[in-house]
From TrEMBL:
Matching HAMAP family: NusB
SUPFAM superfamilies registered for this protein in UniProt: NusB-like (SSF48013)
Gene3D superfamilies: NusB-like
NCBIfam families hit by this protein: nusB
Keyword RNA-binding applies: yes
Organism lineage: Bacteria, Pseudomonadati, Pseudomonadota, Alphaproteobacteria, Rhodobacterales
Protein name as annotated: Transcription antitermination protein NusB
Origin: domain of life: Bacteria
Keyword Transcription regulation included in the entry's annotation: yes
Source species: Rubrimonas cliftonensis
InterPro entries: NusB-like_sf, NusB_fam, NusB_RsmB_TIM44
Function recorded in the entry: Involved in transcription antitermination. Required for transcription of ribosomal RNA (rRNA) genes. Binds specifically to the boxA antiterminator sequence of the ribosomal RNA (rrn) operons.
Amino acid sequence: MAERDTTGAEGAGTEAPPDRKRMRSAARLGAVQALYQMEMTGATLKGAEVEFESRWLGAEIEGEQYHAADVKFFRRLLRAAVDRQAEIDQLTDAALVERWPLGRIDPTLRALFRAAGAELLALPTPPKVAINEFVEVAKAFFDAGKEARFVNGVLDHVARAAKPAAFPA
């Protein structure tokens, strides 16, 4: 018997219900934050999962209520980003101009590219959905529209390299 996909990822041409969509968006934001924390503090994958699931996802912090997140989706993104980091970084580096290798990119953007790359490589989400979602995540971190346009361009390049069949000629 085939294993049923329980990630909640939308199939091509389908939309997730609004609550599920919001929870997946919150999971993406949490994955970016967790990857950033792991890079900055040296936290382990398990440590980041435990901290974010118990303290951040769906919590009220400093008077601001964070949306509840799809924890299973959060874990899949985070684990795929860690497991496939070398491949994701290579695809991202290929999308960047030579003067700006991944190591020179803002660490928040680096975490975002890794989470987005994980979704593009490891989950069945349509590339355009993943790109749009992570452009929105970029807007949560950066005021200027230039970062969102930059994220869109880099992720488009990564998506075309990772899932060329999704982009007919």
